[in-house]
Amino acid sequence: GWLLVQLYRKAPAAKLVGADISPAMVAKAKENLAKEGLSDTVIIEEASASHLAFPDASFDIVVSTGSVHHWKEPVAALNEIHRVLAPGGHALLYDIMSDTPREVLRGAAKEFGRFRIMLLWLHAFEEPFLSGRELEAFPRGSLFGRGETRYVGVLNGLIMKKDD
User: For the chain, how big is the Rg over CA atoms in Å?
Assistant: First the structure.
């Protein structure tokens, strides 16, 4: 729920809704939202990326951070995100890559410290992170058809737009 809290601080008029497949993470997010006084303002639901319980064209923007590598059905998830996006809406998917360029890691180490980046690098051996090339190919088999990638800090972002 911390991303929702930060988004609320930047855009308090926005309607914010979060989703997580893990009941434990939903409970923790609700706890964190309550600590921030946002229980009645920000919604958090239990849902998988490939089965979102929202009506068609519900959102202008869908953001996913650090979960793409866990998706069991990536094309189904992208198609579901496409379904809940309004025409002209954007999907912004951020994750760690298995082949993060050295210059990106060096820049992140300067900003966050070498120890934190070393922990991130070690974490990459435990998780099935995608490569940059795999992330770029993600939208091709989906209703989005295309997207572009770029690094934002140590995360690689996949940006896709639903046609108007």
Answer: 16
> Which residues are paired to 161 by β-bridges?
90
pLDDT tens per residue across span 28-37 = 999 999 999 9
**Contact in structure between 141 and 82 (CB atoms under 8 Å):** no
87 vs 109, more confident: 87
Q: Which amino acid is at 147?
A: G
Are 105 and 154 in contact, with CB atoms under 8 Å apart?
yes
Cα–Cα distances in angstroms (integers) from residue 5 to residues 38, 68, 109, in the given order: 8, 21, 25
- The tokens for 68 are 């793409």
The CA–CA distances, whole Å, from 44 to 28, 60, 152 equal 10, 17, 25
d(CA 19, CA 53): 9
The phi and psi torsions of 95 (rounded to 5 degrees) equal -155, 165
Beta partners for residue 48, in sequence order? 51
